[in-house]
Write a structure and sequence with these properties.
This protein has 476 residues and is α+β, with helices and mostly antiparallel strands. The chain has 5 domains: 2-125, no CATH class; 141-210, no CATH class; 281-348, no CATH class; 359-424, no CATH class; 426-476, no CATH class. Helices cover 22% and strands 26% of the residues. The protein contains 13 helices and 23 strands. Helix 2 (55-66) crosses helix 5 (111-125) and helix 2 packs antiparallel against helix 10.
């Protein structure tokens, strides 16, 4: 049976109430299996499964969730390459499943066990970690004192930033950190993404992923040489778009794997296909077993209509990213209905939110870098102060930044240095803010090209008065 399980498989189903037997070719809207005559059906018409892929899990999950009475059906797996021989015989045996129970037992799918597995999976999917299901690293077993001494970063910083929550699941930090390593008695400053690396004695150490100028695509990667088309694809989308054979440098084992580029560090990353885990939903949107199969092969699911848990809707191309260990939006398009004659382009990407509609981590605004506490406050929806920056016309000011859940982006309020007691734009600075930051004018300043000063509502000299003869601009 071990060899049989390694083969692609197909399902034979039996309706226990009507006695109908057939090969599974899909799924009906009510969740019941769509079947074809097992004696005449073509193998090419059947849904094929592989034990290393999630389509079978997705099919059973959808079936158990949608079917009004799952116990009405029995399922039996057989090797796809033996369907022509075994399929017709199994169809006959299923006419009397009680008498042939012993013969059918090795092929029977335990629906009750599958239901328990799906319930456990659903509980795990509610946890913050997504992607590959791996045993998490226990942060209490990490030598934090040595890490802080070597790299100048501590556990508290990683916890407050939210990075530790990702790193314990054997993934990189979602952002870069500034490290301060010591080499030959001299301290350096370098930016890197972080992950944990297991040592031969079972302990874990910090593994920095330093930023490279460009991806190294001209040299073989784990035995695979990139073609010209491969390089163009990786540089264009960040994903290779197909599964290729890679050789593990430690064991020499060859596995089908997906390849992507780390967009923050330019590292080439890979993950074996048999370790790719894809949830059967994104937000409130279900993924079909066919779509999951396409994603696991590195392909793109085009034009998928997505509804996030917060109710936001859009269409997007989806693709699995080996660096993120998760499905990503390749591009998005608003689902807002177009009016007749409206030919404007609706396509856009919202880079401020993640797949669940939550604010993404940002590390700076203009040229001002945030502290880890500011980043944590921003993600939590709090208003943060960004001091010592300039507006679009070079005037010094302070910005108050906060993520707006309704607009799905950060919103700003300005405070100028000579009006410290005012949060937002003071009345006497309203014209200054509108002209300098929003490109607007009022009647008295409509053609002034110089930065407007605080309290200024009219030309301040003869040169600015002369500029009023130019065409009018938008009013405020």
């Amino acid at each position: 049976m071990e060899n049989i399980q390694e083969q692609p498989e197909v399902l034979i189903a039996r309706n226990n109430e009507t006695g109908q037997v057939g090969a599974v070719v899909g799924q009906n809207p009510d969740g019941t299996p769509r079947m074809a005559d097992a004696k005449t059906a073509k193998l090419s018409d059947l849904v094929k499964f592989n034990k290393h892929q999630n389509p079978l899990e997705a099919f059973m999950s959808n079936f158990l969730r949608q079917a009004k009475n799952p116990s009405l059906f029995g399922f039996f797996k057989i090797p796809a390459d033996q369907f022509d021989k075994i399929g017709p015989a199994m169809s006959d045996m299923l006419q009397d499943p009680v008498a042939n129970a012993d013969l059918l037992k090795p092929f029977k799918v335990d629906v009750n066990a599958t239901a328990q597995t799906q319930e456990q999976t659903a509980q795990q999917e509610q946890k913050p970690a997504t992607g590959i299901k791996l045993a998490p690293v226990n942060p209490d077993n990490i030598d934090w004192a040595t890490i802080e001494k070597q790299w100048g970063i501590n556990r508290e910083t990683l916890e407050q930033s939210g990075a530790l929550q990702q790193m314990v699941y054997n993934r990189k930090s979602p952002q870069t950190f500034t490290l301060h390593p010591n080499f030959a008695g001299e301290q350096f400053e370098v930016d890197a993404r972080l992950s944990f690396k297991q040592m031969p004695d079972g302990s874990f150490t910090l593994a920095p992923h330093f930023i490279k100028n460009e991806p190294q695509l001209d040299v073989p990667f784990k035995g695979y040489e990139f073609t010209k088309e491969d390089k163009e694809q990786l540089l264009k989308t960040g994903n290779l778009g197909k599964a290729v054979d890679l050789t593990d440098p430690k064991t020499g084992e060859v596995k089908k794997s997906l390849i992507s580029i780390d967009r923050l560090t330019n590292e080439v990353e890979s993950v074996p296909v048999d370790k790719v885990y894809i949830k059967n939903h994104i937000g409130k949107t279900e993924l079909s077993m066919k779509e999951i199969g396409v994603l696991k092969d590195g392909g793109v699911v085009h034009g998928k209509e997505i509804e996030l848990n917060n109710g936001r809707k859009f269409t997007s191309d989806l693709q699995y990213n080996a660096d993120k260990r998760d499905v990503e939006f390749v591009r998005t398009q608003s689902l807002k209905q177009e009016q007749p004659g409206d030919n404007t382009q609706k396509e856009q990407r919202n880079t401020w939110v993640d797949a669940e509609g939550n604010p993404r981590r940002i590390t700076k605004w203009k040229d001002a870098h945030f502290s880890e506490q500011q980043i944590a406050d921003y993600i939590a929806g709090k208003k943060i102060e960004v001091a010592n920056i300039t507006d679009k016309k070079g005037q010094p000011c302070t910005v108050y930044l906060q993520f707006d859940k309704e607009k799905q982006r950060p919103v700003t309020e300005y405070k100028y240095t000579d009006n410290k007691k005012v949060v937002g734009v003071a009345n006497e600075s309203a014209t200054q803010y509108a002209v300098n930051n929003q490109g607007k004018t009022n009647e008295a300043t409509k053609n002034i090209t110089d930065p407007i000063q605080k309290g200024q509502t009219a030309p301040k000299n003869e040169q600015q008065k002369a500029q009023q003869k130019k065409p009018k601009g938008p009013k405020i």
